[in-house]
Amino acid sequence: MKRAQVWMWWMILVFCGLAGTAHGAHIVGGNITLNPKTGSPGFYTVCVVLYYDANSTDPNAEQSELTVSFFRKRDNARQQDLRLKLVSKEPLAFTNPGCAQSRNLEINVVKFAADIRLSPSQFADAEGYYLSWERCCRSGDVSNLKGAGTSSLVLYTEFPPLSQVNHSPEFRPANGEILCTNTPYTFESGATDADGDRLSYRLETPFNSTRPPFGIDPLAPPTTGPYLRSEWADGFQTSTPVPGSPSFRLDPQSGQISFTPTQTGLFVYRVVVEEFRNGQKIGEVHRDYQLLVIDCSDENPPPVSLTEALYPPGTSIVPGDTIEVGICSGDTISLKAEEDSRWFYQWQRNGVNLDDGVGPAIQITQEGVYSVVKTFADRCGNASVLGEKFRVTYRSLVPLAITPGPKASICEGSPLDLAVNANAPDWTFQWKKDGVLLTNATQNQLSAIQEPGSYSVHGFHVVSGCVSADTVAVSQNPRPPANLTASKLEFCEGDSSMLLINSGSNLTYVWYRDDFPLPTALSASQVVSLPGLYSVLVTDTATGCTRQSDSLTLLVRPVPQITLDSIPVLCGQGFAQIDLIGTPAGGVFEGKGITGSLFDAFVAGIGSHEITYRYTSPNGCTGTAAQMAQVVAAPRAIVGNDRVILAGDSVQLRSSVTPDAIYEWTPGEGLSNTTIAQPTASPAQSTTYTLRVTTANGCFSESQIRIEVLPLVKIPNGFTPNGDGANDTWILENSEAYPACEVSVFNRWGNRVFSSNGYQTPWNGQFGQEDLPAATYYYVIKLHPDLPVRSGSITIFR
Question: 58 with 100, same domain?
Answer without folding.
Answer: yes
